[in-house]
Design goal:
Pfam families: Mog1. Belongs to the MOG1 family. This is Ran guanine nucleotide release factor. GO terms for molecular function: guanyl-nucleotide exchange factor activity; small GTPase binding; sodium channel regulator activity; transmembrane transporter binding. It is built from 3 helices and 10 strands, in the order βββββαββββααβ. By secondary structure, the protein is an alpha+beta fold. The strands form 2 sheets. It has a 7-stranded antiparallel beta sheet with strand order 3-4-5-9-8-7-6, with helices on both faces. It has a domain at 45-147: Protein Transport Mog1p, Chain A (3-Layer(aba) Sandwich). The longest helix is centred in the middle third of the chain and has 15 residues, at 62-76. β7 (105-115) and β8 form a beta hairpin.
Length: 190
Amino acid sequence: MACAGAQTRPLFGGALSAALPSCAQDISELREIPDNQEVFTHPHTDQSMIVELVEYQGQVEDQDAAKYHFEDIASSNKALESGALEVTHVVPMPKSEVALSDCSTAWMLTGIQSVAKFNEEARNTVTLHLGLFRLPQFSTDILVTFNDPQKIRPESSSAPSAETHREPWTVVDFQRLLQTLTLHNPGLFG
């Protein structure tokens, strides 16, 4: 299946929508996914894009919130030890460049994590691109992550897909998702 182009997909039962690469596979069709997440994978690489609704962290300043969530993801990935994570840059996204007008601020972070899949010993180097939309009026932060493996260890369960790195997703695909994320039903936030 070719991965050219994008298509607008409904998220969370149509409460949100965004343009995703046309070849993105909805993981909820294959296995159980938490209700607060939409997870999509590339059919030929080990890349994934996740849209996640998380609790708004009011104690964290806007400019620090993306790093806060990046470190929270690193904790979940057991990537907190020294040298296992690095934030390379954090930039605000101008509201004029995002469709999600309900957000108070929007941020984009790029970082690197050394993570193992499925509690394996082999740790892969993954560039993690994170988009953060802050919605304090709904007590919600929307996290959008693009996991882009850079170095996959031969003993990792991801190694077979590393050999077939055809038409990988790019940062442009991720930015398109961030720019087109649209809220249709605020009832999503309870």
